[in-house]
Amino acid sequence: MRIALALLLLCGLVLRLWGTSQGYPEFYGHVDEIGVAASIWNFFRSGTLQPTEFTYPAFYSYLVAAGIWLSGLCGLVPRHGGLLDSLVLESFLNPAWAALVGRGLSALLSGLTLYLTYRLGREACSPRVGLVAAFFLACARLPVEQAHQALPDSTMACLAMLCFYCSWKVYCRGAWADYLWAGIFAGLVVATKYNGAFTALAVGAAHLKRGEKGWLKSGKWWAAAGCGVGALFIGSPYLLLAKQQYLQVARYQVSSLEFTLRDTAPWWWVVRGLVQLELVVGGLMVAGVIWACLQRRPLDWLFLAAWVPSFLYIGSWTRESLHYLLHFYPLLAIGAARVADELAGRLPTKPGWQYLLIGSWVLPSLWVGGMRVRELAWTDTRSLAAAWIEAQVPSGARLAMTWLPYCPRLELETNRQSLREYCRGKPALLGQLEKAWAGKPAYQLVNLEVWLKEPVVPEVYRGGVDLADPETRRVFSRGWRSLRQLRELGVEYLVLPEAIYGRYLQGDPPAQLSAAQYHFLKNRAYFAQFAAGDSTQMVRVADFSAGPQVRGGPIHIFRLLP
Question: What is the pTM of this model?
Fold first, then answer.
């Protein structure tokens, strides 16, 4: 059993580390990584722990910043004077290093989650269930894909599993240490990502399941709650110190959960998504939830106490993505393992054949997930577009782009000037910069999108939209620069990834007179002119799309005609 566990953990970790360097040394990973990395680098540039990215709490960013500092101490970052100066310089010259460190952290903590899943499955059910659950989780597509991203999800999932495990210990023995650690991990879950907040309910369920009377007067319970609150604000202190920024983003996030350009299927998308993504194992996970509702064993109560409110809340979102429920994957894997163990045990075969049968159930998702990880090592279409621009477009030219994470990463003159200002009085650093920039072109950037001082609402929509809603106000405050305005600004080339506009050229707009309909029609009208390719105003000079050993969405480059 120990050898099987060791091999399983090793293979699971390799699967998570394989492809971690996708897009490096450029910054071509998940689009949200850029905002998180910028906030992390700002810790070193400003000499403060105040974040600049308020979509997530800051605990994950602090962990990655600590990893970057450690990488500098270990000599993995080129030294240019002191360590702090070297890290600041690295933030400009090699910003994707933060993503690489963050992805490594995600992969390692995702690997740790496998072991915790085995431990909990073994203690709550049986060694065989624990091993099968860890096996299912090791091969599941969603945890593997999330482990390749420098985002808080895998870290939050690991902390949630630690909370579930300590909650199980609270039920089993109720020691002070169990309560305190369960509270600490519950607080750190929320300090990492908000959607894990319902994890804390497992602590309360474990306490109640022990059958202790007068639980509201329990010192252990209140100590756990106090540790949770303390861990939350120690892990992410600017939830208090910069509460206005966090509240502003939170209001927008809540508002955007009701904004959609297509039909949605509340709650059903969770069930459908599990089966579509994880295939046979996903079906076993769904069966495991039903089994938990019927059996209602002690671990089932802990799971359901957190799962039911999470399912009801997150399942109602218009953003239909299972990664919001990633922290339940270990317990879903345990539930799937229980069902698989029950099914295999009913077969008149030897245990070896039963394990072989269970192993065959993960092959479909393992194959699809493995192919996805393999693709991460391929050349990105953004790399090809950047190489073409640097070879064909002279340095100093003015380019128009929008939503930069989907666009090729290029050297910008404004960034170089800012770095020269930073290095003023530091001739050695400035010399290193000029040496790094020699022979590499830099460009001027014009954003296709503009923000209006006040929202502009067409008359036909005025009676049906609420500008007090943050998402609605945002939609009517966004505009696009016309081709005439781009020419007046001296733009020579447009870089347009289909990831930005492709959705607006397909399908039908929302039927009602709403902000979503206006957003769809406005963007369709604007980008249709580029899709049509008006030869009197512009000409398409380059196209890049996925193919053999190339991944990513199509990117088109246009040259504006005089």
Answer: 0.92
Reported as type and span, the H/E element at residue 446 is strand 444-447
Number of domains in the chain: 2
- pLDDT confidence tier of residue 212, bands split at 50, 70 and 90: low
> Over 80: is that where the pLDDT of 202 sits?
yes
What is the Cα–Cα distance from 231 to 254, expressed in whole angstroms? 24
Q: What is the mean pLDDT of residues 164-178?
A: 95
- 180 and 249 part of one domain: yes
DSSP letters spanning 306-364: HHHHHHHHHTT-SS--GGGGGGGHHHHHHHHHHHHHHHHHTSSS-HHHHHHHHHHTTHH
Contact 224, 201 (CB under 8 A): no
How far apart, in Å, do the first and last CA atoms of the chain sit? 72
- Band of the pLDDT at 265, cuts 50, 70, 90? confident
Q: Is residue 410 a part of any domain in this protein?
A: yes
Q: Which amino acid, 401?
A: M
Pair of tokens at residue 543: 């196209």
Residue 214, pLDDT score: 61
β-sheet bridge partners, residue 480: 449
Given the structure tokens 């962990």, which residue do they identify?
63
- What are the backbone dihedrals phi and psi of residue 362, each rounded to the nearest 5 degrees, phi first? -90, -10
Indicate whether 132 and 226 sit together in one domain. Answer: yes
Rg (CA), the chain: 26
Share of the chain above pLDDT 90, in %: 65
Domain containing 272 equals 2-78+96-375
